[in-house]
């Protein structure tokens, strides 16, 4: 499984990528939406884990841009400051079960990624 992590909290996203890599998941990361879009143009990912609140572009908008480049990629949203409205919008985009509130336990994130891989088109 190849995963792209996008979060403007660079220390968090780097640590998360390292921890996933230690568990055999090929994890790449980006700290901005622009970096994420460049990576998606150059690499193929199975799952993108997006922070909802990214500067200059929301995670929801980033999802739409990524889908244009890589149709079929699956998404998980993470947020640290989710309002009820944010939850409703994020849950509508990715499904309630794939909208996670930080801090997210690594085992839960891996379980959600594995669930997504079993969905239609997964490996």
Task: Give a quick rundown of the structure.
This protein has 123 residues and is of the alpha/beta class.
What CATH calls the topology is: Rossmann fold
For the report, how would you describe the main beta sheet? 5 strands, parallel
The name of the CATH architecture is: 3-Layer(aba) Sandwich
Shape: globular
Strand order of the largest sheet: 2-1-3-4-5
Which blocks of ≥5 consecutive residues have pLDDT under 50? none
> What is the helix fraction of residues, given as a range?
40-55%
Instruction: Write down the Rg.
Output: 13 Å
Organism: Desulfoglaeba alkanexedens ALDC
Protein name: Response regulator
Keywords: DNA-binding, Phosphoprotein, Two-component regulatory system
InterPro entries: CheY-like_superfamily, Sig_transdc_resp-reg_receiver, WalR-like
